[in-house]
Amino acid sequence: MTFTVVHRPQHPSFFPEAPYYVIAVELEEGPLMYSRLATNPASSEGLLRHPVKVVFNDHAPQQKLPFFELA
Asked: Which residues of the chain carry a pLDDT beneath 70?
């Protein structure tokens, strides 16, 4: 996993969620997937290449989005 921290979102609808982590995860199957961490860690120290697992967060009725949490 690699990441960046978004402190200043591009759209006002994301302002209440900032800061948040946008991550790139290399899946076991090979593809690279971009997503977010479900919860912000206390520190970004040691996060590079940290293993993660997928969780599905409610986004809208009948819709869930894949986020990740630290394994």
From this structure: none
